[in-house]
Amino acid sequence: MAPKRLHVDGLLVRPWFTPGYGEDLSARIARQIARAKQRVRICSPVITAAPVLATLAQLVSEGKLDVAGCLDAPQIEGVVYQWHQNGNVAWKLPLLERVVGGDFTGKPSTPYGAGTVHDFVHAKIVVADDVVFSGSFNLSRSGEQNAENVLEIHDPVLAEHLSSYVDEVRRLYPPIRLAG
Q1: At 76, which helix (H) or strand (E)?
Q2: For the chain, which residues make up each domain, given as ranges?
Q3: Separation CA 54–CA 131 (nearest Å)
Q4: Nearest to 59 by CA among 37, 79, 76, 84
Q5: Which CATH number does 18-170 carry?
Q6: pTM
């Protein structure tokens, strides 16, 4: 079943489910980010979905919009390592470098391992002006193919609240620095 727009208590809401609509969801999030006029806020373990990554890289490069967020630093380091190993996706590296070179911070979580603390960034939020995407989708290419869910909610009050939340979280951590 295709994602349908619903009106819930006067708000426009659209539920998304992957894998069936994973690529459509990434494209929808990217389009909403591209339409933003004031702000974009992101809290996610990673950003590897090409439409989202490319749109963010363009906006950060243009410098005309308030774009900021918090990612999981060790998971981003893992992505960079994997992309260096796999020439088929190395084209994404400059995009990721541009995005995190903006106003993105990275939580220095404990790298995954048997018996380690699992203290990763796990919030999955995108705010583009007055539109919120929140659920279990972490803006990754693999997430497009996993069983994930997201609510797209058009609500200026919720967007303001979650934007402030992302700002509070990102202020806790240092800027992300990618290792070459």
Answers
A1: helix 73-85
A2: 18-170
A3: 19
A4: 37
A5: 3.30.870.10
A6: 0.94
